[in-house]
Write a structure and sequence with these properties.
With 334 residues, the chain is α/β, with parallel strands linked by helices. It has eleven helices and 13 strands. The two termini are 30 Å apart. Bound molecules: oxa(dethia)-CoA. Oxa(dethia)-CoA (UT7) binds next to helix 2, helix 6 and helix 8.
Length: 334
C-alpha cells in the first residue's frame, strides 16, 4: 500500500547531531589482525578506516548521549520539551532495559517516553518513519531519533569477512512540525524474514539462549553471507528508490542527494549507476567511518548539513538484517 500523508502537519528534521569515538581502526591495523590487505579492503568495500569505542565500560548509550547533546547544544533546545526518544540500535547497552530510556534520563528529557527500535541497518530509516508519523499525528511536538551502534562489541576480530566493514558511531535528528512546507514526503519500507539466515547473531535470544555451547560455537558474533546480502541490498535498495522516484514523479536530475546506508561503496555505486546519479549527488563517508549500522544515515546528514538548503530533495535508502529495507523522500527544511 502506498503511503498517504493525510495530516496537514509536515514533520521536518530541524536539527542534527553526531558523535564518533576518537580511536581509529585503520586497514593497516587490520592487516596485523587477520589475513587481509589495504588494497583488497579499499577495492572491495571503499573503507580506509573506522572509529572504535575502545572503553569496555561504555556501550551504545554513551555515543547516543553524546550525539543527542551535540544536537541539543547546537539547537539550544531545552530537553524537557522532548516528547519521545527513539534509539535505533542492534547493540543496546543491555538486552532488557531500553537503552533509549537511559539516554533520555541522562540528557534530561524528563518528559519523554523512550524505546529502542531494532531493524538492523534499516533501523534509522524505520525510525524516521516512526518519528515523522508521531509528529504528523499531532500528538507529539518534538521527537528525538538517534541511531547508535557499538558494532565492535559484536564483531569477531578473527573473521576477516565482517571485521573489515564495521565501525562505531552515533547520530541524532530532531523531528518537529514545520510550517516551511518541507519535511517527510513519502516512504517505501519492506521486510523479508527469510533473509535472517544470511545476516544474524544467532545466540543470546529466545531461540538459542546463552549457553556453554553457544559461547564455544561463536554464536554471539555477527555472521553474514556477504555475497548474498550484497545482491539483495543492491536490487532491493534500487527498487525501493525507483518506487519513491516514480510515485512522487521526481526527476532524478532534481534529486539533491541520495542518502544511502554505508555498507559497501560498491553497493552504493551500483545503486547510483542504476538510478543515473552522478557521484557528487551521493552522500558518502564510508571511507572514514565504515558501516556503523543504525548510525550511517544521521552521520551522513551531519557531514553534509552545511551543504543543504531549504527545499533540497533527499532520497534515503537502507538495507539490513532481517531482511529489512526501504527508501524515503524528504525535503530539507533549513
Ligand atoms: O550493512 C548490512 C548489510 N551488509 C552488507 O550490505 C554487506 C554486503 N556484502 C559485502 O559488502 C561484501 O560481500 C564483503 C565486503 C563482505 C565481501 O566482499 P566480496 O567481494 O563479496 O568478497 P567474497 O566474499 O566474494 O570473497 C572474495 C575473495 C574470497 O577468496 P577466494 O575464495 O576468491 O579465493 C575471500 O576468501 O576474497 C576473499 N576475502 C578476503 N581477502 C582479503 C574475503 N574477505 C577478505 C579480506 N581480505 N578481508
Amino acid at each position: 500500500m502506498n503511503y498517504i500523508n493525510p495530516s496537514p502537519i509536515k514533520a521536518s528534521i530541524t536539527a542534527v547531531g553526531a558523535y564518533v569515538p576518537e580511536e581509529r581502526l585503520t586497514n593497516a591495523d587490520l592487516e596485523t589482525m587477520v589475513e587481509t590487505n589495504d588494497d583488497w579492503i579499499v577495492a572491495r568495500t571503499g573503507i580506509s578506516e573506522r572509529r572504535i569505542l575502545k572503553d569496555p565500560t561504555k556501550g551504545s548509550s554513551y555515543m547516543a548521549i553524546k550525539a543527542a547533546q551535540d544536537l541539543i547544544n547546537k539547537r539550544n533546545l531545552d530537553p524537557v520539551e522532548i516528547d519521545a526518544v527513539i534509539v535505533a540500535t542492534i547493540t543496546p547497552d543491555m538486552n532488557v532495559a531500553a537503552t533509549a530510556a537511559f539516554v533520555a534520563s541522562e540528557i534530561g528529557a524528563t518528559n519523554a517516553f523512550a524505546y529502542d527500535l531494532q531493524a538492523a541497518c534499516s533501523g534509522f530509516l524505520y525510525g524516521m518513519s516512526n518519528a515523522s508519523s508521531m509528529i504528523a499525528s499531532g500528538r507529539y511536538q518534538k521527537v528525538l531519533l538517534i541511531g547508535s551502534d557499538k558494532m565492535s562489541s559484536i564483531i569477531d576480530y578473527s573473521d576477516r569477512t565482517t571485521c573489515i566493514i564495521f565501525g562505531d558511531g552515533a547520530g541524532a535528528v530532531l523531528f518537529e512540525g514545520s510550517d516551511s512546507g518541507y519535511g517527510w514526503e513519502d516512504e517505501y519500507l519492506r521486510s523479508d524474514g527469510s533473509g535472517r539466515m544470511f545476516l544474524n547473531i544467532k545466540a543470546g535470544g529466545s531461540l538459542f539462549p546463552t549457553s556453554k555451547e553457544t559461547l564455544e560455537g561463536g554464536m554471539h558474533s555477527l555472521y553474514q553471507d556477504g555475497k548474498t546480502v550484497f545482491k539483495y541490498a543492491v536490487s532491493e535498495m534500487t527498487n525501493a528508490v525507483e518506487q519513491i522516484i516514480q510515485r512522487n514523479k521526481i526527476d532524478p536530475e532534481n534529486i539533491s542527494y541520495l542518502v544511502p546506508h554505508q555498507a559497501n561503496k560498491r553497493i552504493i555505486d551500483a545503486i547510483a549507476k542504476r538510478i543515473g546519479l552522478a557521484d557528487e549527488k551521493v552522500m558518502s563517508n564510508i571511507e572514514y567511518f565504515g558501516n556503523t549500522t543504525a548510525a550511517t544515515l544521521p552521520l551522513l546528514l551531519k557531514d553534509y548539513e552545511s551543504k543543504l538548503s531549504p527545499g533540497d530533495q533527499l532520497v534515503f535508502a537502507a538495507f539490513g538484517g532481517g531482511f529489512t529495507w526501504g527508501a524515503a523522500y524528504l525535503t530539507w527544511a533549513y
